Every structure is written in structure tokens, then in C-alpha cells.
Amino acid sequence: MKIYADLHIHSRYSRACSKELTPENIDLWCRIKGLGLVATADFTHPKWFSELSEKLEPAEDGLYKLKSSYQKTEPLFKEKSVQPVRFMVGTELSCIYKHKDKVRRVHHCVFAPSLEVAGRINQALLERGCNLKSDGRPILGISSYDLLKLLLDIDQRNVMVPAHAWTPWFAVFGSKSGYDSLEECFDDLTDKIFAIETGLSSDPPMNWRISSLDKVALISNSDAHSLQNLGREANVFTGKELTYDSVWQAVKRASPVSRSQSEQLNGLKLAKTIEFYPDEGRYHYDGHRACGVCLSPAETKKLRGVCPKCHQPLTIGVLNRVNELADRRAGYQPPQAVPYDSLLELDKLIADSLGVRGRHSKAVEQVYWQLVSVLGNEFSVLLNSSLESIEQVAGKKLAEAVRRLRTGQVSLKPGYDGEYGQVELFDPNEKLSAQPSLFG
Fold this sequence. Notes:
By secondary structure, this protein is an alpha/beta fold. The chain contains 15 helices and 18 strands.
């Protein structure tokens, strides 16, 4: 059994998120993408919690599934077999507080073994005066340490994972408001943090440069604000038993230190992660979006961290921050590290191969639905389908795009200060014909 899992998404009740993010649509798009496990998202929001309670029913221990009466189909997606989707009760919380004379803004992914336990978490937060109605990802005036303690006091099976750990503004290692180590943040509870989320702007090789992170697993999730972004980062589990506890046991065993001690154990295993190219993330390089200034760490150092246009401090990106904390050379890989694949979403790949600007054009959608209907879900197309079969369905150029993606032959333009970077597979002047008949 191979399960693709995305454990950090949002609902329509989170700020700046699509109104299409309903349980029914999430279940449908997980099947389209090839995800077998997804977080419920936003369980602290009263309306969303009520909707989850109504539309989900228990499945394997600690997991849920959408009730059959709510399941949807997509006419353009011809499913060859219905792939069951499981939901894990999980959300993102924002902790903003003062600690050691500095304002900290740290986001965390929080998971519970049941909706009943999630309800107890919600009640405990309400009793501490937290406003859970304002946003699906509420801001809590609670320290990271106190939040973790609260979760463990409610149920020892609750799990907390620092979200997008390197993002400048809202992360445990963020350059603007984070910490230099997990110990500084979590003190005597540090051993309860057994994983961090790498985020879109970093990948495993960047995190491998910090030796203290050998003690934790690296997981990757989409942080999706829309249905189309589900699975843009994910975790791949292999094994026979999928439950809440088996997932987290697999993650615990996935750190380089733990893998060296437990490689022979049976059960669910974190086999690899699916990664964004970190250059495409919104905070990979340093810069100033308002001034259109994007800089490498070396260029920032020469400018002493000051924008050359407005002379204000630059937003220091993830790569620079990793360089600051790293105690290993770039390119180091722990002997027991979990492998990874760097991918690009299929609709972006199609747009690049067609020379179309944007991923939402009718031409892109036409090819997308043809591919996932004929060859299977999106992960199947990107990772498993033969290049010959892709060429038969969508033409020579898309098959070549997939080949280049799989072999890492890409051109990267880094993102910075909230601006997404760009990943391109073809030079604008490159000619590669032979489009399929479905283009007319």
C-alpha cells in the first residue's frame, strides 16, 4: 500500500482561501490528485467543526471518511476505481507572544486522534480567552510551549509540528520572529517535537545542513488555500496499516537518528516526501517586493541587509536563514535521510509545454482532464506513467516536460518577500512540436 498524505491545508473559513474548500470538494480533489490522506483543516472554527462533525464518519482508528451521501463526482474525471480518502483531524494555529524580550510569531500544525478530542482542545482555548470565530487559522496569545503543554494535558496522543519552519514572519526558525533552535522555543518539552514541516521555500537538503535537526523528521505539506494546490507538497507512506497512531509512529521513526535504530521495524513507513522546488517558494531569496528587489544571500551581505532602492531593511529569506544556522556544508546528506522528489503541479507543467500564461486557461484544463482520466490521478501522471503513454495522450512536448521534471532539468527563478518564484522547463525560443489531436 502506498498512501500520499497532505497534512496541512485550509478550509473556506480561513482568510484568503477559496470558498470551494468544502469537505465534499476536498474529498473529490484528493481523488483527482491521488491523495489518500488529508488533514481536515481549521477544526477550531465553530462552523467548520460543525460541518466536519456532520459530514465525516469514523473509519480506521483515529481517521475519518466522508459520508457516502456527500461524495461528489467530476464529469471530466473518469475514475477507473474509487480511491478512498481518509481525513485526519488537524489544523494550523498561530501563536503570537513575547518571549525573551522579543515578539514571537510562530505557526504550528496541530493534530488530534478524534473530533471529540479536538472539541476539548477548542473548549480549552475558549476558556483561555481565544477568539476562534475570527479565522480558520486563529491567532492565539499563547506561547508555543504553553500550547504544546495544553495539548498534551488534554491527550498524550495529540501532536504538534512547527509549520513551514523557515518562513520569515511566522515560523519557529523565521528570520523576523523565530528562534535559533527548537530547544529555545520548547525548553523541557523539546523531545515532544519529533517533526517539522519544511515549507515551500525549503527542501530536505537545506534542512540537512543543521545537525540538530537530525533528531526530527522532515515532513512536507501543501498549506493549500485552494483545491488545485492540494498535494503540491506531500508525504508518501508505505505499509499495510493506516491509522492515526501508525502515521505518527512512522514519522517518529523517520528522523535520520531514529531510522538508523529502527530500519528493520515493520509497520507504516515514511518512504519519501514530495517537494516544491524551494526556489519557487515565496521566501526563498532575500528582497523587497515593493521595490522589485530580489537578492541572493551573498548580495544581501554586500549590502548589509539594506534595500538598495528604499534603504529599508530587506526581508531575509529562507536560504539566508538556513546559511546563518547551518553547521554543515551545502550538499551534506545524513546517511539515513528520507528521500524526496521535487515536482511541479501538472497544470503548471501543461501551461509551460503549451506556452500558455497561467494555469487556468481552457486549453490547459482540456489537457489536464484528458491526462488524469486516461492515465489516472495527477501523482500517477507525474511520477509513474510512461513517457510514451503521456505522449499518446498529450503530445511530445508534454512528455518531454515530464522527462525534464523527473530528471531535474529545470530553470529556476527564486521567489522573495512574498513573491512566488518560477520554474520553467522550456526556453521561450525552444521549438518542440508534435501536439496531440485533442488540440484540434
